[in-house]
Amino acid sequence: MALDHAIVMGGGMAGLLSAAGLAGQFEQVTIIDRDELRTEGAEALAPRRGVPHGGVVHRLLALGERRIEDLLPGLREELLAAGGEEWIRDAQEQSHVQEQGSLALTRPMLEGVIRRRVLALPSVTARQGAVAGLLTEEEGRRVSGVAVRGGAAGELHGGLVVDAAGRSSRAAGWVEGLGAERPRALSTRVHVAYTCLRLHLRQDALPEGVQDLVVPATEELPLMVELEPCGNGEHILSVSGT
Fold first, then answer.
1. Is 187 helix (H, G, I), strand (E, B) or coil?
2. What pLDDT is stored for residue 48 in this prediction?
3. How far is it, in rounded angstroms, from Cα 11 to Cα 34?
4. Which 3 state secondary structure label does DSSP give 70?
5. Number of H helices, E strands in the chain
6. Among the four 57, 60, 123, 132, which has the fewest Cβ within 10 Å?
7. What is the pLDDT of residues 13-56, one digit of tens each?
8. Strand pairing report for 57-60 and 102-106
Protein backbone atom coordinates (compact mmCIF):
# COMPACT_ATOMS: atom_id res chain seq x y z
CA MET A 1 0.00 0.00 0.00
CA ALA A 2 1.39 3.41 -0.96
CA LEU A 3 2.20 5.81 1.86
CA ASP A 4 0.78 9.31 1.94
CA HIS A 5 3.33 12.07 1.25
CA ALA A 6 7.12 12.37 1.02
CA ILE A 7 8.95 15.71 0.99
CA VAL A 8 12.36 16.07 -0.67
CA MET A 9 14.47 19.12 0.20
CA GLY A 10 16.57 19.99 -2.86
CA GLY A 11 15.98 19.58 -6.57
CA GLY A 12 19.48 18.64 -7.72
CA MET A 13 20.65 15.19 -8.73
CA ALA A 14 20.28 13.71 -5.23
CA GLY A 15 16.81 15.17 -4.78
CA LEU A 16 15.55 14.16 -8.22
CA LEU A 17 16.75 10.57 -7.93
CA SER A 18 15.41 10.34 -4.37
CA ALA A 19 12.02 11.47 -5.66
CA ALA A 20 12.16 8.90 -8.47
CA GLY A 21 12.86 6.15 -5.96
CA LEU A 22 10.06 7.27 -3.64
CA ALA A 23 7.47 7.75 -6.39
CA GLY A 24 6.43 4.11 -6.33
CA GLN A 25 6.09 4.04 -2.56
CA PHE A 26 4.20 7.27 -1.86
CA GLU A 27 0.95 8.66 -3.23
CA GLN A 28 2.57 12.10 -3.48
CA VAL A 29 6.19 13.28 -3.59
CA THR A 30 7.00 17.01 -3.39
CA ILE A 31 10.43 18.43 -4.30
CA ILE A 32 11.25 21.82 -2.75
CA ASP A 33 13.99 23.95 -4.31
CA ARG A 34 14.95 27.62 -4.34
CA ASP A 35 14.96 27.60 -8.14
CA GLU A 36 11.99 27.12 -10.40
CA LEU A 37 12.58 23.61 -11.73
CA ARG A 38 11.92 24.05 -15.44
CA THR A 39 11.36 21.12 -17.77
CA GLU A 40 10.76 22.86 -21.11
CA GLY A 41 12.68 25.34 -23.26
CA ALA A 42 16.34 26.32 -23.27
CA GLU A 43 16.33 27.13 -19.54
CA ALA A 44 15.57 23.50 -18.73
CA LEU A 45 19.11 22.56 -19.84
CA ALA A 46 20.82 25.75 -18.61
CA PRO A 47 23.25 25.93 -15.65
CA ARG A 48 21.65 26.52 -12.26
CA ARG A 49 23.06 29.05 -9.79
CA GLY A 50 23.39 26.43 -7.06
CA VAL A 51 25.65 24.19 -9.17
CA PRO A 52 28.91 26.15 -9.61
CA HIS A 53 30.71 23.20 -11.25
CA GLY A 54 27.98 22.80 -13.85
CA GLY A 55 30.20 24.19 -16.60
CA VAL A 56 32.85 21.48 -16.44
CA VAL A 57 32.68 18.28 -18.45
CA HIS A 58 30.86 15.36 -16.83
CA ARG A 59 30.82 11.67 -17.68
CA LEU A 60 28.02 9.28 -16.85
CA LEU A 61 29.83 5.98 -16.32
CA ALA A 62 28.25 2.65 -17.14
CA LEU A 63 27.41 1.53 -13.58
CA GLY A 64 25.84 4.85 -12.66
CA GLU A 65 23.85 4.80 -15.88
CA ARG A 66 22.52 1.32 -15.15
CA ARG A 67 21.40 2.34 -11.65
CA ILE A 68 19.60 5.41 -12.96
CA GLU A 69 18.04 3.36 -15.77
CA ASP A 70 16.54 1.12 -13.07
CA LEU A 71 14.60 4.18 -11.88
CA LEU A 72 14.09 5.88 -15.25
CA PRO A 73 14.12 3.35 -18.11
CA GLY A 74 15.16 4.75 -21.49
CA LEU A 75 17.25 7.57 -20.03
CA ARG A 76 20.28 6.83 -22.24
CA GLU A 77 18.30 7.36 -25.43
CA GLU A 78 16.99 10.67 -24.10
CA LEU A 79 20.48 11.86 -23.15
CA LEU A 80 21.79 10.99 -26.61
CA ALA A 81 18.83 12.80 -28.19
CA ALA A 82 19.62 15.86 -26.04
CA GLY A 83 23.17 15.94 -27.42
CA GLY A 84 25.15 13.61 -25.18
CA GLU A 85 27.98 11.71 -26.88
CA GLU A 86 29.27 8.21 -26.32
CA TRP A 87 32.81 8.54 -24.99
CA ILE A 88 35.28 5.87 -26.12
CA ARG A 89 39.05 6.25 -25.75
CA ASP A 90 41.43 5.34 -28.54
CA ALA A 91 41.97 1.59 -28.50
CA GLN A 92 45.71 2.00 -27.86
CA GLU A 93 44.99 3.95 -24.68
CA GLN A 94 42.34 1.61 -23.32
CA SER A 95 43.08 0.01 -19.97
CA HIS A 96 41.46 -3.16 -18.70
CA VAL A 97 39.35 -1.07 -16.27
CA GLN A 98 38.01 1.36 -18.87
CA GLU A 99 34.22 1.14 -19.00
CA GLN A 100 32.74 1.15 -22.47
CA GLY A 101 29.76 3.25 -23.36
CA SER A 102 30.28 6.13 -20.93
CA LEU A 103 28.45 9.30 -21.95
CA ALA A 104 30.18 12.68 -22.24
CA LEU A 105 27.84 15.56 -21.47
CA THR A 106 27.39 18.63 -19.30
CA ARG A 107 25.91 18.60 -15.82
CA PRO A 108 23.00 20.88 -16.87
CA MET A 109 22.16 18.47 -19.70
CA LEU A 110 22.20 15.43 -17.42
CA GLU A 111 20.24 17.12 -14.66
CA GLY A 112 17.77 18.71 -17.08
CA VAL A 113 16.86 15.44 -18.79
CA ILE A 114 16.51 13.64 -15.45
CA ARG A 115 14.41 16.53 -14.08
CA ARG A 116 12.05 16.29 -17.04
CA ARG A 117 11.62 12.55 -16.53
CA VAL A 118 11.12 12.76 -12.77
CA LEU A 119 8.61 15.61 -12.86
CA ALA A 120 6.64 13.71 -15.50
CA LEU A 121 5.96 10.95 -12.95
CA PRO A 122 2.29 11.17 -11.89
CA SER A 123 3.00 11.40 -8.16
CA VAL A 124 5.89 13.91 -8.27
CA THR A 125 5.52 17.71 -8.15
CA ALA A 126 7.94 20.60 -7.58
CA ARG A 127 7.44 23.59 -5.30
CA GLN A 128 9.63 26.69 -5.38
CA GLY A 129 10.85 27.97 -2.04
CA ALA A 130 13.38 27.47 0.74
CA VAL A 131 12.87 25.17 3.71
CA ALA A 132 13.01 27.32 6.86
CA GLY A 133 12.67 24.56 9.44
CA LEU A 134 11.14 21.25 10.42
CA LEU A 135 7.61 20.69 11.70
CA THR A 136 7.28 18.21 14.55
CA GLU A 137 4.71 16.29 16.54
CA GLU A 138 4.76 14.29 19.76
CA GLU A 139 6.77 16.99 21.59
CA GLY A 140 9.48 17.04 18.95
CA ARG A 141 9.99 13.29 18.77
CA ARG A 142 8.59 12.95 15.25
CA VAL A 143 9.22 15.12 12.18
CA SER A 144 5.92 15.75 10.41
CA GLY A 145 6.87 18.18 7.65
CA VAL A 146 8.65 21.42 6.79
CA ALA A 147 8.05 25.16 6.88
CA VAL A 148 8.63 26.84 3.51
CA ARG A 149 9.51 30.50 2.93
CA GLY A 150 9.74 32.38 -0.34
CA GLY A 151 7.97 31.20 -3.48
CA ALA A 152 5.04 29.05 -2.36
CA ALA A 153 5.43 29.79 1.37
CA GLY A 154 3.57 27.86 4.05
CA GLU A 155 3.65 24.53 5.84
CA LEU A 156 3.97 21.17 4.13
CA HIS A 157 3.15 17.98 6.00
CA GLY A 158 4.37 14.50 5.14
CA GLY A 159 5.28 11.13 6.55
CA LEU A 160 8.88 11.32 5.32
CA VAL A 161 11.29 14.25 4.88
CA VAL A 162 14.45 13.68 2.81
CA ASP A 163 17.38 16.11 3.07
CA ALA A 164 18.97 16.38 -0.38
CA ALA A 165 19.79 20.09 -0.16
CA GLY A 166 23.55 19.61 -0.36
CA ARG A 167 26.04 21.98 1.23
CA SER A 168 23.40 24.64 1.90
CA SER A 169 21.38 22.28 4.10
CA ARG A 170 20.67 23.34 7.68
CA ALA A 171 18.94 20.09 8.58
CA ALA A 172 21.74 18.85 10.87
CA GLY A 173 21.32 21.90 13.10
CA TRP A 174 17.55 21.51 13.12
CA VAL A 175 17.82 17.87 14.18
CA GLU A 176 20.26 18.83 16.94
CA GLY A 177 17.86 21.55 18.05
CA LEU A 178 15.20 18.89 18.61
CA GLY A 179 17.46 17.22 21.16
CA ALA A 180 18.72 14.45 18.89
CA GLU A 181 22.37 13.71 18.20
CA ARG A 182 23.78 15.79 15.37
CA PRO A 183 24.42 13.57 12.31
CA ARG A 184 28.11 12.86 11.87
CA ALA A 185 29.70 14.49 8.83
CA LEU A 186 32.86 13.34 7.08
CA SER A 187 34.79 15.61 4.72
CA THR A 188 37.96 15.45 2.65
CA ARG A 189 39.93 18.35 1.21
CA VAL A 190 40.81 17.61 -2.41
CA HIS A 191 43.22 20.54 -2.96
CA VAL A 192 42.52 20.71 -6.70
CA ALA A 193 41.86 23.89 -8.65
CA TYR A 194 40.63 24.05 -12.24
CA THR A 195 39.36 26.34 -14.93
CA CYS A 196 37.66 25.51 -18.20
CA LEU A 197 36.42 26.95 -21.48
CA ARG A 198 33.76 25.58 -23.82
CA LEU A 199 34.81 25.47 -27.48
CA HIS A 200 33.37 24.85 -30.94
CA LEU A 201 36.19 23.14 -32.85
CA ARG A 202 36.47 23.29 -36.60
CA GLN A 203 35.56 20.02 -38.29
CA ASP A 204 39.15 18.84 -38.94
CA ALA A 205 40.67 20.07 -35.66
CA LEU A 206 41.16 16.55 -34.28
CA PRO A 207 42.44 13.47 -36.12
CA GLU A 208 39.75 11.10 -37.36
CA GLY A 209 38.41 8.91 -34.56
CA VAL A 210 39.95 11.02 -31.79
CA GLN A 211 37.48 12.51 -29.32
CA ASP A 212 39.77 13.93 -26.65
CA LEU A 213 43.33 15.00 -25.86
CA VAL A 214 45.15 14.84 -22.52
CA VAL A 215 48.47 16.43 -21.52
CA PRO A 216 49.41 14.98 -18.10
CA ALA A 217 51.04 17.02 -15.36
CA THR A 218 54.81 16.82 -14.84
CA GLU A 219 57.20 17.95 -12.13
CA GLU A 220 58.22 20.88 -14.30
CA LEU A 221 54.61 21.84 -15.10
CA PRO A 222 52.21 20.48 -12.44
CA LEU A 223 49.12 21.22 -14.50
CA MET A 224 47.00 18.77 -16.47
CA VAL A 225 45.37 19.94 -19.68
CA GLU A 226 42.37 18.09 -21.11
CA LEU A 227 40.21 18.60 -24.18
CA GLU A 228 37.07 16.49 -23.91
CA PRO A 229 33.69 16.25 -25.65
CA CYS A 230 30.71 17.56 -23.70
CA GLY A 231 27.85 16.92 -26.12
CA ASN A 232 26.17 18.80 -28.97
CA GLY A 233 29.42 18.76 -30.94
CA GLU A 234 31.22 20.93 -28.38
CA HIS A 235 34.40 20.37 -26.35
CA ILE A 236 35.59 21.67 -22.99
CA LEU A 237 39.22 22.68 -22.50
CA SER A 238 40.20 22.20 -18.85
CA VAL A 239 43.36 23.09 -16.93
CA SER A 240 43.70 21.63 -13.44
CA GLY A 241 46.35 21.28 -10.77
CA THR A 242 47.04 21.00 -7.07
1. coil
2. 83
3. 8
4. helix
5. 5, 14
6. 132
7. 999 999 999 999 999 999 999 999 999 988 888 888 777 777 77
8. antiparallel
